[in-house]
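Quick illustration, no need to memorize.
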Amino acid sequence: MSDQTPMPAQPAGGQRKIARLNDELRANITQPGANRVMMTSGIADLIGDVAVFRNFRKRAELLRTIAAYDTFTPANDPYGEHDLGTFVFEGAACMWKIDYYDADLSAGSEDPSNPQVTVRVLTIMRADER
C-alpha cells in the first residue's frame, strides 16, 4: 500500500490553473487573502528577531526570493503546478512548498484548481526540517 494520498483527477487545464494560482499566492505573499503563509522555527531562527524593526530586511529578502522564484523545470516541477521551490538563504538550504486544503483546513482540497473550495498553505522551511 502506498504512503501517499492519491490525488483526485484534475479537469483539463487544471495543472496550468493550479500553477497560476500558486504563482499568484507567491506574488502576493505578504497579502495572501484566504490563503496562508507559514514558516518553520528554523526559518525564524535564520531571520532573527523582527521586533522593533530589527531584521525586517532579512524577512523582506526571504519573501522576495520566494515571490521571484521562477526556476521551474520538468525535473523539479514534474506536475507543472509550481508548488515547490528550493533556494539558499543566509547560507542554509531552504525550500517552500504549497499544499492544498479544504476551506476549514481539516482535509485536502478535492479540487486545487478551484480557489472557492481550496485554501493554499505555503510553508517556508529549511531543507533539513523536512
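The radius of gyration is 15 Å.
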